[in-house]
Amino acid sequence: MPSTHTAHWYSNPAARDWLTDSPSSALSFHQTLHGYTPTPLVPLPQLAAELGVGQVFLKNESDRLGLPAFKILGASWAVCRAVCEHFGLDIAGITVRALRDHLHVATSTGPLPVLVTATDGNHGRAVARMAKLLGLTARIYIPTGLSDAAIEGIKGEGAELVALDLTYDEVVEAAAHSAKGKPQELVVQDTSWPGYEDIPRWIVDGYTTLFTETDQQLSELGHEGPDLVACPVGVGSLAHALVDYYRSEGHPHPSLLSVEPETAACIAQSLLAGQPVTVDTSFPSIMSGLNCGTPSELGWPSLLAGLDGAVSVSEDECRQAVVDLAVLGQDAGPCGAAALAGVRNAFKDEARRRDLNVGTDSIIVLVSTEGLAANPLR
User: For residue 20, what are the contacts with CB-CB under 8 A and spacing of at least 6?
Assistant: First the structure.
């Protein structure tokens, strides 16, 4: 049955003039993790020719610290900070090994924390991986429609899986409620609500490593920075990191474009409304990791002030982007390939292209947030 959803477009011509405080960096912590290396920034001249720009690069997150998505950047930093706070430990200079050693000793004095979260795929697996690395247990809540691959990935980390016949937003509420009044249960959620902001902020801080790497890699190639960065968004935590990084002093100030499914465009519709709105996410999408109905409260001010554009894409547009990137040798799942689909969609209209300040010499970075193993086409 064809979708009745329509595409969305939003632009903010004042976004590049807005400034905010620089986010905290978790790069030095990430560099202590076993297997850490920057993910590739791949030039794709075929796409540059198609889009009529100078260069296109794909930031490929299909293998980030052994997982098929970027989420471990936020989960690793937030979990370690939350566990340190739980035990009154100094986060400065902490490593996973040192924290695990402390937890091994702590078992003699009482029960260890349980990590609790809701997920539409990659975040839950990342939290489960951190639980395994630290010798903790994790309880992961999932909504209707999650792919078999995502479910098996979470189970493979040894986590307890709780499947609920609910939407993503409802599952987030259920997970938070399940830990209420239980001090040994730590909710590690990548969206915020009143009274729950510290851990989502640490997750956002963790994500900035992705953009730090991108700028370092561009600099090594002789570029001052990107002219446009296109980023897939769900509740907006990665986009929050994107905006705070590029809208702070000392960093380039490119145009920033968020990309969502037409079926769950909560960021675009909120931006168009000028305030956060909740959208119906009961319609299934191959972009399951972006199938979120309500913007993160923590990130909303930055998204409203600092995003140059927001666009939504259809299932067919996303599917074609997956295929086209595969032909170019790039492993991108539907959520990751959405960045390409979004730029293509935006560039159909010359006025939108001007809104994004893109010319024939522009450098575009597409953030591909996951590999196909994280969420196979179905």
Answer: 243, 244, 247, 248, 302, 305, 306
In contact, 322 and 332? CB cutoff 8 Å: yes
Active site residue 71: yes
**8 Å CB contact between 128 and 150:** no
Query: Residue 207: helix, strand or coil by DSSP?
Result: helix
What SS3 class is residue 130? helix
Domains of the chain (ranges plus CATH)? 9-70+205-374 (3.40.50.1100), 72-200 (3.40.50.1100)
> Could you read off the pLDDT of 75-131 as tens digits, one per residue?
999 999 999 999 999 999 999 999 999 998 887 777 899 999 999 889 999 999 999
Residue type at position 172: V
- The phi and psi torsions of 64 (rounded to 5 degrees) equal -110, 105
Give the helix/strand (H/E) hosting 186.
Answer: strand 185-187
Active site residue 132: no
259, 230 contact by CB (below 8 A): yes
| Residues contacting 41, CB < 8 A, separation 6+ | 57, 58, 59, 60, 213, 214, 217, 218, 365
Please write the tens of the pLDDT for every residue from 170-203.
999 999 999 999 999 999 999 999 999 999 999 9
- DSSP H stretches of helix in the chain: 27-30, 45-51, 72-87, 96-106, 122-134, 148-156, 168-178, 198-220, 237-246, 266-273, 300-306, 315-327, 334-347, 350-355
The confidence band for 2, taking pLDDT boundaries of 50, 70 and 90, is very low
∠ at Cα 322 (347, 228), nearest 5°?
35
Average predicted confidence (pLDDT) for the chain:
95
Set 21, 59, 71, 182: catalytic member = 71
> Considering only CA atoms, which of 129, 124, 141 is closest in space to residue 176?
141
Choose, from 17, 59, 63, 120, the residue flagged as catalytic.
Answer: 120
Query: Does residue 170 sit in helix, strand or coil?
Result: helix
Q: pTM score > 0.85 for this model?
A: yes
Confidence of residue 378 (pLDDT cuts 50, 70, 90): low
Pairing relationship of beta strands 55-60 and 41-43 according to DSSP bridges: antiparallel
Strand 255-261: give its sheet, edge to edge.
9-11, 309-313, 255-261, 228-232, 363-368, 55-60, 41-43
